[in-house]
Amino acid sequence: MTTPESDRSGFVLPLLLLAGFRTLIDDLHAELARQGHPDLRPLHGFVLQAVGVDGTTAGELGQRLGVSKQAAGKTVDRLVALGYLERADDPADARRKLVRMTERGVDGLRRSAVVFDALRERWAATLGEERVSAMEDDLRRVTPAQFFRLDVPGWFGG
Q1: Overall fold of domain 12-157
Q2: What SMART domains does the database record attribute to this sequence (predicted)?
């Protein structure tokens, strides 16, 4: 049996990074559920970020997420039904429909930011602030400058 100290195989690092990500996301969504957002899923956070404060079209949303317009539309339909998004006429072009966040969507994103801060504090309490800061610094050194990519859903989907 291998231990964390003895197993430094290359494939372990991405699995540990993914496990850390999954732990943070699962803890985030458990807390969001307690705070009145039980239907938000990890994909929804990417969608809300991609919609942004100004809104977007389903086609543009698909491009931002790296998925088809149809896949984006299906997710938009779900988030409209849940009250996180709405469709509206584009004031600049009546032929276009915009997808915009509702107050519920904005509230979900605001709460997510607060919960992520609390989760980081929890990690710092467990590992020490210095180690968490060093981990963040080290990850910045080995990842692209534009590390926040909204096209993760499309990338995961192939």
Answers
A1: Arc Repressor Mutant, subunit A (1.10.10)
A2: HTH_MARR (SM00347)
> So where are the chain's domains?
12-157
**What tens digit of pLDDT does each residue of 129-146 get?**
999 999 999 999 998 887
The string of pLDDT tens digits covering residues 13-68 is 999 999 999 999 999 999 999 999 999 999 999 999 999 988 999 899 999 998 98
